[in-house]
Structures are given as C-alpha cells and as structure tokens.
Specification:
heterodimer, A: mainly alpha, two-stranded antiparallel sheet, 66% helix, B: alpha/beta, 6-stranded mixed β-sheet, 5-stranded antiparallel β-sheet, 15 strands, 30% helix, disordered N terminus
Amino acid sequence: MLCALAAIPILIAVAVRVSSAVPPGRGPAFLDRIAQNGLFVGVTALVVSVPLFLPLTVGVVAGDTIAGEAGQGTLRYLLVAPAGRVRLLIVKYAGTALFVVVAPLVVALTGAGIGAALFPVGPVTLLSGDTIGPGEAVVRLLLIAAYLAVSLLGLSAIGLFISTLTDVPVGAMAATVVLSVVAQVLDALPQLEWLHPWLFSHYWLDFGDLLRQPVSWDSFAVNALLQGGYIAVFGALAYGRFITKDVLS
Amino acid sequence: MSTGGPGAELSIETRGLTKRFGQQLAVNGVDLAVPKGAVFGFLGPNGSGKTTTIRLLLGLATATGGTMRVLGEDMPRKLADVLPRVGALVEGPAFYPFLSGAANLRRMDAADPYGSAATRRARVQSALERVGLTHAADKLVRAYSLGMKQRLGIANALLAPRELLVLDEPTNGLDPQGTREVRSLVRSLAADGATVFVSSHLLAEVEQICTHAAIMSAGRLVAQGTLAELRGAGQARIRVLTPDPGAAAQVLTGLGLTAALSTDGRTSGGAGSGAAGSGTDAALFASLPAAPPGAAAREDASSALAVEPEAVVAALVAAGVRVRGFATEQASLEDRFVALTGEGFDVVQ
C-alpha cells in the first residue's frame, strides 16, 4: 500500500516531465510549478491524495485491525494468549497511527526525491510572498505531511471502532472509506455550514498556513483539537464495544 | 454422579452456566466439574453447545448467567491471571497464512505478556518438536495441509507449561498417525500433571484417552462422571448363542426378560440365522434391568441387577436349551451417548 502511495508522486512527476509545459491554473494545485521546482511534486502529490487516496489506505488499515483478526480466526487465539482486550486495542490503534504517520511521509519524500531527480530544485516562494531555500522547503513539506498525519488520526479512530463491529474486514474498510467521502460531500454543501466545523475532514486541506512566513499554527491547533476529539469519542466507543464483545468467529 | 470425594480439587467448575443468543439458549444451566489431573472428554452432537461452553470458559464470550471457576479462580474476573496457565485450541486452528509456522507461534507468544522473549525461540522450537512439525517450521502456513495446521494449533497451546489444556476437536483432520500421536501427547500431558479438557464427537477416541467425560445435548449437560460411571449407568445385557432360539426366548421371557433375536450382522451364523438348523446358531439379546430400588433382589442382596446372568444360564440349561455361547456385555459409551442425545441425524434447534 505504501508502494501504491509512492507511485502517485512518481506518476505525477513523470507525466509532467514527458508532457509539454502545464499551462498555469490548470490541473491540481501547484502542478504548473513542478517544471520550475521539483520540490513541488511532493506538495502536489499530497494535495492530490488527500481527498481519496490517503483516506482509502487509512480506511483499509484501520478497518482491518480487529475485523481482520476476527475474520481470520486469530482474534480468539490472541485473546486466549492472553493479549488482553484493552492492550490489543491500544496496540492495534498504535499500528494504525504509525501507518497514518508514514503514509503522507512516503508521498512527500518520494515526491521530493523524484522531483529533484527529474526537475531543477531551487528556492520556493511561499504564499506570503517570502522566498525560502530548498532545505527550508523540505522542512515545510515535512510539516505538511505531519499535518496530514494528524488529520487522518480521527478517521483511523473511526475505522478502529467500525472494525470492532464486524467480523468482515472488507465491510469495515468500505464503511470507513465511505464515511470519509460522505464527510467531504457534506463539507461541500453550503446549506450544512453549521455542521462543517465538526466534520473530521473539514480541515484536511487547510495546511496553507504552514506555507507562510512566519508559520501560522492556528489551523494546525484547531485541526489537532478536532482530531483529538474524534480519537476520544471513537476510541471510547471502540473500547466499550470491544471489551464486551462476544468473540464467536 | 459426583467425581472424586468432597473437597476434591477441581480445575473447571461451573454452576448454572448459561448463554443466550437472542431467543436461543446455546448453553443452558451447565454444572461442569472437571477434577484436577483428569483427561476430561466433553461430548455432544454438533450444535449442542460444546464450543460455546469453551468460549465462555476462556472469556471469549460473556455468560448470560451462572458462575465459573477455572484453576480455582473466579472467571471472568481473574481472566488475565488464569489464561497464561491455560493452553487452548478453540474451534480449529487459525493462523496468518503469509507467515511461517514458527513465525506464527512467535507472534502468538508475543501476545502473551508472560511469554518471555528470551526463551521464545526455544519454546517455539520444542512445541513444534512435540507435534512433529520441526521440518515444516519455516514453511508458510499457506502451504500447510489441514492436519499440519491442526498440529500447529496444538503446538500453540503448548508454548508454555500449562496447568489446563482446552482442546476443541484436537484430532480433526489428522491422519491415523497424527491421531495416535495426539492421543499419546494427551496422555503425556496428563502424566505431567496437567488437566486436559478435550471436546470431541469421536466417542472411540474419548473412550481411549479420557478418565472422565460429560455429555451435552441441546445446551444441557445430560451426564457427567468417570468413564466407568457413565458406562455403568447404561444397562448391561446378555448375549446367548444357541441353535434353539425359540426355546431360549421362552426361558428368558419366563425370567421376566425381553429377548430379541439379533438383527444386526454380528452373529457368525450366516444369513439364515433364524432357522434352527443344527449348524446355525442364532444370537439372542436381552437387557438386564437393574433391580428396582428398595426391593430386595431375589438371590443376592448386594447385586444391582434384578436377574443374575448365571441364573439365566442355569435356567437355559435346565430347560434343555443348547447354549453355545453366553456373554454379558456392558453398554458402550456409544450406547449411552445415543440413549442420551437421541438417534436422529437432525441438528437440535
């Protein structure tokens, strides 16, 4: 799955390299900047994968946590070992969180790497108009990856909870991915504006603040708070469900 | 039908254990008593609640009612303390197909907080050795046969020294050698002092390895005790081999027994077993009813039987019946099992 994620920036970079110059303002954000500065491959790839591809992989990993073990029958042996239900839940969530951290990092670093290999690398102009060197730019790229990791923690907690509800891993994965899409659709409806700040996907693309000089941490903090709330609520739900669950698979 | 004297230590003790799934009572008021050090056969037709009971005992499912004590501790309150002392094979083995057998065992052992990492390799190695899987230790489980997976499942239960082993259908899918090995493995575990709780529907197997047994039917525990007790509770019967079945039947009826000509092919007399040709013996069966409680038996007050077998022979001979063979047969566990759980093939709802 990490390989599939790494394929995105490579695909973008190669496509831009072999095609003629991209007219400004067309395609995903920053696409037109790639030819001048390879580091933008990483940013573009992250922007492209946020709506579907990253949530998809997170949904697969989080949905598989408990339901996968249950479907395979290994859950009963882990519990009899005894792994302890709380311990198992924490370890499974930690594993998912690790994936959530690594996934955007892979996209960003592969992007930066392939960009540097195929295109020139130079100073980057920030949204605030300031210019920073390539080294500083990579730091900003890593910051964006970290922001996305935090953004996806809430979704992975939801996936963990759904995973405790079923013995069919595919069902849990699909439900998690569908939820992430539904949240983004709701976020796009102006009629539901009152709901928007509560949607776990609401701040997913708000990492622009990290591309200013000095860095504005406001959106990072608001997003972290929201994701923390989702972790608390769905973590508690997963705990409540799993601790009393009859393991019959 | 208590086993052992009062105060005998029990490895598993349940009182009124009940599990309800919606409308259905999967386990209904089960009072199990598994003595320490016993090899306990847990019998029952498919769907009688054996595996559900095991799940309750291992804390995989929560009981709707009743109390449980496993290894002297209250369950499920002391689950975390008890489970490391229990090895289990529940409803077939389950492993990660993309890992090797040894890697699977190491992963399972890592899930046990008491499984010391320092001795893990050695313990995995010896568990694999015990089930004869050493040569396939590094093969992916995907490539294992059903019997090899079953062996690996047993190895998983043996990763640490255990006081109680709960083996659900341990010989499922095993070849005859494997079945024999499991039998001797169970015996050696019991010899080491462990209690072995074997669920099975293979009666012959239980008769061979178990000291105690319990029989489940439709969620209820219908019998429990030592193997001898279970068999003894069934009626003994006599088998008379004679060329004069008519006269013999009259004598038996005169003694108050109901005689029946053999209908199964167990006699060696050939097809015309009913014919009174001198070369052909017919086999007559009659069950010996137990003496009515309270009433003194006719000849021997200490006897549990209403009619002594030797009295039957004497009566037959006195009546001039040519007795060519006579045997008393103890009811087998299978007779008892069928008597308690019914003949039918249908799974009980």
